Amino acid sequence: MSDLYLDGKFSRNAFINGKEYLFFSGYDYLSIHENKDFLQLLNEGLRKYGWLYASARISNTKIDLFEKCEAYLSELTESEATVLYGSGFSSGQAITQLFESNLENSPFSHPAILKKKNTEKDVRKWQQTCAETIQSGTYPTFASDTVNNFYVEKYDFNFLQTLDQSANFILDDSHGFGITGVDGKGVSSYIQKAKNINYSYTYSLGKAFGIGAGAVSTTREIANQLHKQPSFAAVTPPPPAQLYAFLHANEIYLTQLEKLKANIQLMAQLFEGIEDIKLHPELPLALLPSSLNETDFLKENCIISSFAYPDPKGPKLNRLVINAAHTENDLEKITKLVKKYLS
């Protein structure tokens, strides 16, 4: 099937050549793009800062918005310091570049943090290898996603608490920050931290918060090293109007998160007892059998996520991606269609 070109933005629905479809793809978990209160905050930010800050963070002329946002993100992630970037990919690349000479990746690592591909398929076996390496006293650095959004998995890192040797751990929380943990604060709010492990969190602000930016929350020492990289010093910073809206939208985000949680729970109820569907109680995703055909859903005015990953020549991964704007009727319709095509 050829690619689908949307007329414009998407939320619970999308339009193609003027025709409306229910939309179960993309990443707009909290459905911020359609939220009127958020758009009002965005307009306030535009009036104050414009749509672009056409300067560098190291310039002698500054605005304090970026530092305020970094301080807020440090508070949310319980970190000493945070460094903003233009995307989650950029932030992941920046932090892993610091340690790439001594970095080991987890299986299925996202390209944002991937420096050395790991052929191990079992994450638990990889964690066991991590523990053995750390206990050897070599002070290694590991990088892993916290959520595998393609296979609908959320990883547990509490095994680190049992270790007494030191290590660096880089956790990419792009698909967790904003929706998992306490009030959506992500992995930093639920991981049982070990004192001897140095944690750095890299993440996108786009998946849940609807902001075109990414960040690394880490120690002050590592943040100072990141500030010296060209990827921070020689680039245009994230759009300030969006960061202004982000800083003032906490109540909006929490309200949307409750809606999303209700939708996740409803989807689980509607798919209850169907072994061919993979779900997770905290994730707005459903992994469908590869045998299903996206064209069948399109004929019923529904769009699902369907593309091959990580091998573009491999079998397609079929998923439903839900968001806070989907209605009960939306979810009932798509789950009925899935059941129909599975039978």
Automatic annotation (TrEMBL):
Its cofactor is pyridoxal 5'-phosphate. Keywords: Aminotransferase, Transferase. The keyword Cell inner membrane does not apply. It comes from the Bacteria. One of its GO terms (molecular function) is pyridoxal phosphate binding. InterPro entries: Aminotransferase_I/II_large, AON_synthase_class-II, PyrdxlP-dep_Trfase, PyrdxlP-dep_Trfase_major, PyrdxlP-dep_Trfase_small. It holds the Pfam family Aminotran_1_2. Residues 172-273 form the Aminotransferase class I/classII large domain. This is Aminotransferase class I/II-fold pyridoxal phosphate-dependent enzyme. It comes from Rhizosphaericola mali.
